[in-house]
Amino acid sequence: MSMPRAVPRALLAAALTAAVPSPAVAAPVPARTAEAPGCRGAVPGDLNGDGFADLAVAAPYATVDGRARAGTVTVFLGSPEGLVEAAVLAQGDGVPGEPETGDSFGSALAFGDFDGDGCADLAVGASEEFHGRPRRDADGNGVVHVRYGSRDGLAGARTLDVRGLGRRPGTDRFGAALAAGDLDGDGDDELAVGAPGLTGGGGVAIYGLSRRDLRGRGLLVTKRTGWVRRPALATDRFGEALATGDFDGDGRAELAIGAPGEGDPVSGAGGVTVISPTARRAAHFDQNTPGVRGNAERWDGFGSALAAGDFDGDGRADLAIGVPGEGVTPLQRGMDYGDGAVNVLYGSRRGLTAARDELWTQEVAGITGRARYHDRFGSALAAGDLNGDGDDELVIGVPGEGAVQVLAGTPSGGLTRDHDLLITGPRLGGFGAAVAVGAFTGGKAGDLVVAAPLAGRVELFRGTARPGPYPGVRRTSTVVARGPEAALPGHRLAP
User: Which GO terms describe its biological process (predicted)?
Assistant: First the structure.
């Protein structure tokens, strides 16, 4: 793929298989229906039910119809040969609405099966869109567009915003983060939407609870919600990062909510709140929580990135928490980017616990690489089985170094430093700013996708089946997408 600097509507229309007949029915992405076994045989992140995970690549600063930073999302279909470009989506072409300057369509992405048909659906945030006249130098109101997967590709469309919560739009940045998971155990996924600019320090909207689709009024969760009850400051950015996982193994996923600006009692130290919206239960973690390694310090940004995966193969999800502002070397000064660290909390019958908490940095003995005050280790995270042995590996983005670090999971104790892998890319291109894991080529082992948005490049690293404490990822890669750096291609990836 070669992303153009300015994407005209004619090109977008050509990338889709048909024109959009109405805002509610959008054009389908081409599907390989001849071989497709159907949606019931789909794998996670499979939009068309052909048994291969698909990939969405956001370029939120792409120019559309002459409108700068309107944003596009490119869909790639998985296959044994690799990822194949299928369509380019933008507001007004394949998605309801119109492209406008500064909308940042693609500010967040998530795959989930919201209608229970077995095929993944695609949610796209446009966090800087305004409902009405834009306000200069203000954060956007935000909107989320959902395109539904089917055996024939992407089909219907739905649009969500804070008005569905009974609120008036503000500088909410609704859609700045997205996550999907079965939070109520009914077999289809719910959609969680982060609105970190919501008045009072941010919030999260949850759609689809106890329903078969995203219809109906969403549930709004903030720090002031009665069963959450956390101190709230305007700068918390509650909802800036989201992840779902079944941390207690009861068949219903929980939702982890990052608030990297959380400042009680230390400004910008950050925190993570894990909620069960059906049980109305919440637990809070930060680096002042007993058992959590590290110390809560100014600008650590604990909770800036989140990823759930089963690192010890016990059937319960574990949670990796990015702390990219963490200082681990003497050279770091206040407000520097940060050496960076990742805390890992393990699941149990009681949910996430700090009893086995781990703190990973490039200062850990035996880890490849060297911590530097500008690395931002932990800025991006992804989890998945890259070696085909049944437990998940952890991928850590280190964009300041231009690298990703891969730690293998093991059933004997979770993540291990043994055979850890450091993959480097363009140092000044932000390689590692976004990462994703999925069964893109259909093998037993998953594959890794790494973006370098400032270099205009997205790369695929194939996984290899090798049971044991091995990362499984090959060092050689295939370039999936190229585009102008100004568009930030790969700023967000899904799954």
Answer: cell adhesion
C-alpha span between 186 and 209 (Å, rounded): 9
DSSP 27: P
Answer whether residue 449 shows pLDDT above 90. Answer: yes
Among residues 421, 381, 416, 417, the alpha carbon closest in space to that of 398 is found at 381
**Cis geometry, peptide bond prior to residue 495 (ω within 30 degrees of 0):** yes
Q: Which of 494, 456, 457, 490 is nearest to 58 (CA)?
A: 490
Q: What is the pLDDT of residue 361?
A: 97
Burial class (CB in 10 A: 0-12, 13-18, 19+), 160: buried
Q: What was the pLDDT predicted at 263?
A: 85
Task: Give mean pLDDT, residues 81-100.
Answer: 91
Give all strands (DSSP E) within 169-237, no chain letters: 177-181, 190-195, 203-207, 219-221
Q: Global pTM?
A: 0.92
How is residue 217 annotated by DSSP? Answer: P
Q: For residue 338, what are the contacts with CB-CB under 8 A and spacing of at least 6? A: 299, 300, 301, 323, 324, 325, 326, 327, 332, 373, 374, 375, 376, 377
Domains and CATH numbers, the chain: 55-482 (2.130.10.130)
How high is the pLDDT of residue 24? 34
pLDDT at 42: 67
Based on the number of CB atoms within 10 Å of its own CB, is 19 exposed (0-12), middle (13-18) or buried (19 or more)?
Answer: exposed
Question: What pLDDT is attached to residue 41?
Answer: 63
- CA 473 – CA 448 distance, rounded (Å): 7
Q: Name residue, tokens 């089963």.
A: 310
Residue 381, φ and ψ in degrees, nearest 5: -140, 150
Other Cβ atoms within 10 Å of 342 Cβ, number: 26
Residue 11 confidence (pLDDT) = 36
Strand order in the sheet with 318-323: 305-309, 318-323, 341-346, 353-360
- Is 126's pLDDT higher than 60? yes
Element (H, E) at 242: strand 241-245
Helices and strands (H and E) in the chain: how many: 1, 31
Distance (Å, whole) CA 181 – CA 453: 27
| Whether pLDDT at 174 is above 80 | yes
Helix (H, G, I), strand (E, B) or coil at 358: strand
Reported as a pLDDT band with limits 50, 70 and 90, residue 153 is confident
Which H or E element spans position 10? helix 9-15
Question: Could you tell me how far CA 245 lies from the centroid of its own chain?
Answer: 13
Residue 213 and residue 222 in contact, taking contact as beta carbons nearer than 8 Å = no
